[in-house]
């Protein structure tokens, strides 16, 4: 299959994703660069309700584009950092990730260009480093970019998004859905906030995100039940 045909196939697949019942476009179509603010949001990580680590989401300017990061440490289980570069239109250009999970090294280096993503990935679940070369649309983000970008979405009541997401450790593209299920007033260590409640589904997995309804827009809680919860402790600047 030629590259031009592969690109057409990817574009057609994205059109089908957006046309699914209830879907109102992809994540990229609902991003608002004006909602991004340079700064660092620090979270406590709770496992079964007990503090076991920390996570930081960062946003910074990178020329006319943006750099978004995600770093997390949970006891001796995992220590990982991700660095994503976006252009001025908030299209992904590059991912760099490294860390250790249960004593095993992990590293990913991917570059997005000309309708493809290429690079290499080493994950604890794989016996060896794998080469990645996959056709993607301009609306595709890797799975590490989603959480830092949630604050930049123009959320509204009833919004449902079906979007292509690259599984960065495998190089495959999957469909994730994000749906606003209501409004909630939540209290976390950083304070009490009026938020949108958003369900993020990827296959059999679901994470519930709470994102502030008013500026400054930020994620204040992420949870997939009592097993894992992140709660905002401090935001700089506030």
Explain how this protein is built.
- The protein has 238 residues and is mainly beta.
- It is 9% helix and 56% strand.
What's the short story on this structure?
With 238 residues, this protein is mostly beta strands.
Number of helices: 2
What would the average pLDDT be, to the nearest integer?
A: 91
| N-C termini distance | 51 Å
Proportion of strand residues: over 45%
Shape: globular
Radius of gyration equals: 17 Å
Oligomeric state as shown: single chain
Structural class: mainly beta
For the secondary structure, the number of strands is 15
- Helix amount, in percent? under 10%
Uncertain segments: 8-12, 15-21
- The main sheet orders its strands as 8-7-6-5-4-3-2-1-15-14-13-12-11-10-9
Order of helices and strands: HEEEEEEEEEHEEEEEE
Largest sheet: 15 strands, mixed
Helices and strands in order, then pairings?
Elements (H helix, E strand, L loop, with lengths): L2 H17 L19 E9 L2 E13 L2 E10 L3 E9 L5 E10 L2 E10 L2 E7 L7 E6 L5 E2 L3 H4 L10 E8 L4 E17 L2 E12 L2 E8 L6 E5 L5 E8 L2
Parallel strand pairs: 9-10
Antiparallel strand pairs: 1-2, 1-15, 2-3, 3-4, 4-5, 5-6, 6-7, 7-8, 10-11, 11-12, 12-13, 13-14, 14-15
